[in-house]
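Title: Prediction job returns without error message
Component: structure pipeline
Severity: low
Priority: P3
Assignee: unassigned

Description:
Job completed but the reporter wants confirmation the result is attached to the right record. Sequence as submitted:
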Amino acid sequence: MTSIDPDTPGTDTPGTDTPGTDTSRTDTSGTDTARTDASRTGTPRTDTSGTTEPPRRVPAVQAMRGAARQLGELLGAAPERVSALQPTPDGWLADVEMVELERVPETMTILATYRVTLDSQGQLLGYERQRRYARGQLDRGR
């Protein structure tokens, strides 16, 4: 049995990083500070071989909301709706409908469809206007 003497160098002192001892510590809130869960911190996880997994794709609902919100902020207008959303290897593609020009009667209001590219975390990478149309216009032959 090993005795613990804080005044003698080389003895096992609780809390030191001696090989073969558990170095995890608990802060005053009871949280284990030496072990963190990567899924809570948002950082990529590293396995024992040292390789890093790519971050997971945000859920479809979060991607839809993010696409509409971010495009609205860039264009300075409120989005009408997200009319399409599809996953890609690198993130998401979304089609967002925006009001371009208010008109009276409302059926003559000009809308535009924007194709928005998001990364896997839902951040806007780019956008492009696909088409413009009057609110009352039907898609024919599309």
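Comment from assignee: result matches the submitted record. The two ends are 82 Å apart (CA to CA).
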